[in-house]
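About this split. The held-out portion is used to measure sequence recovery: a designer receives only the structure tokens and must propose an amino acid at every position. Recovery is the fraction of positions where the proposal matches the reference. Here is one held-out target exactly as it appears in the evaluation file.
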């Protein structure tokens, strides 16, 4: 019950944030009403994702991406995804972001971490439109991994095909890999993927610097409180 209340709280928060945003900047055509069962929807985690909507709308409309939506809003990246783009987004679900909040001792959304959080989330966005077929074709032509510069402009996300399984893999500079959960959903201003975990360009959160193991041992994680910025307590 606590988990359901927590998720509901995040949804209310995202809805409140979105009410204060300016109108979508994209000039792409959008359906005026979301109709479940239309030819333009794909059901993800029991929620339809509409292929003729902008990528920011699909993110905000998904319960599984509420933490990601909050992070994008706090860093100003959500408004970026309202533009014409195109953008290819590799959105992490709630669990890895809440784990990151835990690892940062509940300070992931603290003002001191804002620049690093923005860089972390910008690492999930690649300028341009990259369908799964396009990525696979690029990898085949190069006979190996393909590196794309992410939205921040400083960081590179690497794509490869896993031998044996043929799955598309994402890799960060530390060599960690990420798999795709929902693949290749076309949007009116780009392409949306949902990944299974969260990669990092190598940034360290301010809360990690100088934090002692003893202090960390005194913190108890409160799951589902990502959107309030309170992920740990004494």
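Reference sequence for scoring:
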């Amino acid at each position: 019950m606590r988990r359901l209340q927590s998720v509901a709280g995040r949804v209310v928060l995202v809805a409140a944030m979105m009410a204060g945003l300016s109108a979508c900047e994209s000039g792409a055509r959008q359906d005026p009403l979301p109709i479940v069962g239309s030819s333009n929807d794909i059901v993800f985690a029991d929620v339809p994702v509409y292929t003729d909507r902008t990528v920011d709308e699909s993110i905000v409309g998904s319960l599984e991406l509420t933490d990601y939506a909050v992070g994008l809003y706090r860093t100003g990246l959500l408004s970026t995804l309202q533009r014409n783009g195109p953008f290819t987004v590799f959105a992490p679900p709630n669990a890895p972001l809440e784990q990151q909040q835990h690892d940062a001792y509940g300070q992931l959304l603290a003002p001191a971490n804002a620049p690093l959080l923005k860089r972390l989330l910008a690492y999930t966005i690649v300028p341009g439109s990259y369908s799964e077929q396009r990525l696979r074709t690029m990898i085949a032509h190069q006979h190996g991994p393909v590196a794309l510069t992410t939205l921040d402009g400083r960081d590179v996300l690497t794509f490869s095909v896993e031998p044996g399984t043929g799955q598309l893999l994402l890799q960060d500079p530390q060599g960690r890999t990420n798999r795709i959960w929902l693949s290749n959903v076309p949007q009116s201003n780009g392409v949306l993927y949902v990944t299974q975990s969260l990669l990092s360009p190598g940034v360290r959160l301010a809360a990690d610097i100088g934090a002692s193991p003893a202090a960390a041992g005194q913190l108890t994680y409160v799951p589902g409180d990502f959107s309030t910025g309170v992920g740990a307590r004494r």
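Annotator remark: The two ends are 23 Å apart (CA to CA).
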